[in-house]
Amino acid sequence: MGFFPYPGVMPVLPASRRLFVWLAPFALAACGDGLSLASGIALPARLSAAEPAPAVWPAPDWWRGFASAELDALMAAATTNNFDIRAAQARIRQADANLRIVGQALLPSGNLGAQTSRSQTPLSTATAVSVAGRSRFVQREIFQTNLQASYEIDFWGRNRAATEAARQTADASRFDVGTIRITTEASVANTYFAILAAREQLEIQQQNLAAAERILTLLNQRLEVGTGTGLDIAQQATLVQQQRAQLPPLRQSIDQNIYSLGTLTGQVPQTVPRPAMALAALRLPVVAPGLPAEIIVRRPDIWQAEATLASAQASVESARAALLPAITLTTSGGFQNLVLENLLRPGSALYSLAAGLTQPIFQLGALRARVRLTEAQAQELLENYRAAIVQALVEVEQAIVALRDTTEQEALQQAATRSAERAYAISETQLRAGTIDLITLLNTQQTLFNTRNFLIQVRLAKYQAAVGLFRALGGGWG
């Protein structure tokens, strides 16, 4: 297969070469009709849902474009206190420490020691008779210091590949922090907007309830003078109860989303301030996607998938090298003497040198299975890498369509709401004058209630679509 470790998977490259492999197709893709990346995915020349225009990328603090001081404060708390972000940062430190541990295999290992020993042995019977009257034991004290070192020659690159795998894992951990941060920021913004929408829906529902109760009062007055019927009152009373029943779910939505902000910002629920801004008071930030090749390099999840794949490829090389003989050099040296003051003299020196060759035999089956395992894992990660690229483009296309259509839908729904408000005002006046029946009023009343609520839902969808586009474009990470 030549340069490739095995079919369908990219080789492990140094960081500088990997960057070149990334950027070269991107530069060409900007000039041509889309070229294949090393993943095998052919990028399109442009996005289908976007009009050709210069890119306007999200800023690192992209949420400030919504012009909400409340949202700014929540984002500041989330980026500092969010538990998922902190945990991901801890995983970076773990990966860096593991890299140092694994990288130690490329260096010699050794130990410096010093010891003293004292021994006593009895004399033989013949010697004991000749030395009668003297000690029957021989005592000996030995002083020793030594340095032992060993080094495995990384002839086949097993340790280098293992170190590269650990390095790529550490890089993947850093990209993971970027992915989690963007996801957290998007969740904070969407939850905040959902609270504002639920607050406005609650206010509208209270207005709807007040309007329904006003009509019910009117019908009761008409019944008292003999111009109304019990059926009219029963119908309107049903509508009043229906409008009142919609209040508790909205209060529940507000409270639960505020509590969710506590999780996202790392605070207990009681300390999360209740948002008070109107949803309609928000601004819609300007953002425009660039070319597909530019989008790819701005997504930390794609960089994470690429680094994870590179780590797996390095693990394949390490597993293959484990099938080959290991060459180890060992040496030791030091001093030994019976007298402490003579310990470091040349006559007390001792040393040894040795070289060893170890070839695995009985565990070859397990080692070959290990190679097949790492190859299959790398192939799985390659597919994940390809999926991340396609998913990124899909998310951008979907977000563009959602933002465009919800913006248009909001304008149309605003016009429908204004018409419904005029129709209701006319019908209420005509009902008081006795020129229309209750059924007509109920229809216009229900239409008004529905259009008001739907307007808030569409407006919320628009802002959440904007957040989705910011997130799909990599937030401010790139």
Describe the structure.
With 478 residues, the protein is of the alpha+beta class. The chain has one domain: Outer membrane efflux proteins (OEP) (Up-down Bundle). It is built from eleven helices and four strands, in the order αααβαβαααααββαα. The chain has a four-stranded antiparallel sheet with strand order 1-2-3-4, with no helix packed on it. Helix 5 packs antiparallel against helix 7. It is elongated. The chain starts with 14 loop residues before the first helix and ends in a 6-residue tail after the last helix. The N terminus is likely disordered.
List key phrases describing it.
4 strands; 11 helices; alpha+beta; 4-stranded antiparallel sheet; 478 residues; Outer membrane efflux proteins (OEP); disordered N terminus
CATH topology: Outer membrane efflux proteins (OEP)
Strand content: 5-15%
* Low-pLDDT runs: 1-37
Oligomer: single chain
Proportion of helical residues: 55-70%
CATH architecture: Up-down Bundle
Q: TL;DR?
A:
The protein is α+β, with helices and mostly antiparallel strands. It has helices spanning 15-31, 69-81, 83-103, 125-130, 158-224, 230-245, 247-265, 292-296, 300-321, 364-433, 438-472, and strands at 109-122, 137-153, 326-337, 349-358. It contains eleven helices and four strands, in the order H-H-H-E-H-E-H-H-H-H-H-E-E-H-H.
